[in-house]
Amino acid sequence: MNLPAALKRISETVWELPVSHKEGMQVPARIFATEKLLKEMDAGVFDQVSNVASLPGIVRYAYCMPDGHWGYGFPIGGMAAMDPHRGVISPGGIGFDINCGMRLVLTNLTFDEVQPRLRQLVDRLFARIPTGVGCHGFVRLKQGDFRAVMEQGSRWCLEHGFATAEDLEMTEEGGCFSGARAADVSDKAVERGYNQLGTLGSGNHYCEIQVVKPENVFHQGLAESFGLNIPNQVVIMFHCGSRGFGHQVATDYLKVFLSVMERKYGIRIVDRELACAPFNSPEGQAYFSAMKCAVNMAFANRQVILHRIREVFSELFHRDPFDLGMRMIYDVAHNTAKLERHMVDGKQKELLVHRKGSTRAFGPGSAGIPECYRETGQPVIIGGSMETGSYLLAGMESGADAFFTTAHGSGRTMSRHQAKKNYRGDKLQREMEARGIYVRTDSFGGLAEEAGAAYKNIDEVVETTELAGLSRRVARLVPIGNIKG
Q1: What region, left, alpha or beta, does residue 183 occupy, with left being phi > 0 and alpha being psi -120 to 50 degrees?
Q2: N or C terminus: fewer CB in 10 A for the chain?
Q3: Residue of 21, 205, 334, 408 marked catalytic
Q4: Which of 156, 152, 154, 151 lies closest to 167 in space, CA to CA?
Q5: Are 326 and 310 in contact (CB under 8 A)?
Q6: CA-CA distance, 96 to 100, in Å (whole number)?
Q7: Is 247 considered catalytic here?
Q8: Is residue 411 scored above 90 in pLDDT?
Q9: pLDDT at 132
Q10: What distance in Å separates the CA atoms of residue 68 and residue 411, rounded to the nearest whole number?
Q11: Cα–Cα distance between 302 and 101 in angstroms, integer?
């Protein structure tokens, strides 16, 4: 593709669009990529990241990570920090699947112990964790109970026997964004979400059994600190979010913001998908609260799924899940907005950090991460494609330049529609099984959308994050079993 003429190379992995690139830009836009990855990005990335740079109150730069591709309003892989006093909050900077995120769980099992039971494990996980559009979870809640879930997040799970105290400690923000008010959520959103707790959903959501091969450990010390200390150790990674509930919250507030943005606040934007409101306005604060409700529902959703995974492993191996070493490494979101403190022009400043398809990656010594990770930096979980593998990374001190943010996955190179035209799900399933990856899915069409060739090279993406000083490689995780939403 033709790159924008104004694009400047800052370093081997940093590119910049100056404010002169587009009328209205408040700050430059920065893209982290090698030249090869940059040329693989669709034109929408450059258009969207420069649109984001025009939002009121944006601080320093609009950013795009190496896995960036076109999204709704913001590019996926986008990040923007706003001054909370003069800046805006935008649902397009968070996404419809609020708190879509990753969880990585240890076992003390090896590949040789798991492989003979792999089909049973995957089949039983597929039976116990609902997948697909509109699926319902096994936790039967009344709508009033669900309102407690959205305000308490993983704490609700702890009180109802679906979590341990350590699970909460190993979850971003303890599994609950404070300040969530159920009163700010519509009845329609509650109706869509109250029976979806413990469900994987559809799209690119999955639960995967993976192996850490010795040759795929990049940093032995960090790997051991994160609990990866057995050759060919088996781990479980899963990826999902706030389901239809979060989608409805975003939809509701996009309508609100479009109705007041220009009429009430005089904000003009170049793309209506960047609909926004001043953060400190009544509408901005109501959305911030409702977004937190969706964030908390997603944390609880992943926690209930973990409970199910532990049940399945315990049943098949006839051992208590904690005898099997089934402890969390971490749970981290990649679709949120949060108030965080960062250094700006030599001073600590509170910022509203939008991350949309990008991951918080706090470095060593940072507040806000578990005590056991203070010397290592925060674990960062990067989901690749189901064919090629995923990564565990760690935050770095040098990440401060991007407000401690890194990539979230491989990043698509092909639309879902195009992938379905190019690949057949049933053929892909057989080919993957022949390569040692056993997959169960509700939809062969959905499986075709997730073909490995529809994504960028995950090895190149994570290496770029390391070269750019955003996050450090710890280990590559190889898939052997997958249930696909």
Answers
A1: alpha
A2: N
A3: 408
A4: 154
A5: yes
A6: 9
A7: no
A8: no
A9: 86
A10: 6
A11: 9
Cα(236)–Cα(206) distance, rounded to whole angstroms?
A: 11
Sheet strand arrangement including 8-9: 8-9, 14-17, 29-32, 58-69, 76-82, 347-356, 335-344
- 78: helix, strand or coil: strand
390 near 458, Cβ under 8 Å?
yes
At CA 414, angle to CA 413 and CA 416, rounded to 5? 135
pLDDT at 375 over 80: yes
Helix (H, G, I), strand (E, B) or coil at 324: coil
User: Count of residues for the chain?
Assistant: 485
Burial class (CB in 10 A: 0-12, 13-18, 19+), 229: middle
Q: How confident is the model at residue 133 (pLDDT cuts 50, 70, 90)?
A: confident
pLDDT single digits (tens) 451-467: 888 888 999 999 999 99
pLDDT at 414: 86
Please return the burial class of 325, using the count of CB atoms within 10 Å of its CB with bins 0-12, 13-18 and 19+: middle
pLDDT band at 416 (very low <50, low <70, confident <90, very high): confident
H or E segment to which residue 466 belongs: helix 458-467
The model's pTM is 0.97
CA distances from 328 to 65, 101, 254, 332, 382 (A): 26, 14, 35, 11, 15
Q: Mean pLDDT over residues 17-38, rounded? A: 97
* Extended strands (E) in 150-301: 206-212, 233-240, 277-278
Q: What is the mean pLDDT of the chain?
A: 96
User: Binning pLDDT at 50, 70 and 90, where does residue 385 land?
Assistant: confident
- Of the candidates 331, 377, 389, 359, which has an alpha carbon nearest to the alpha carbon of residue 472? 377
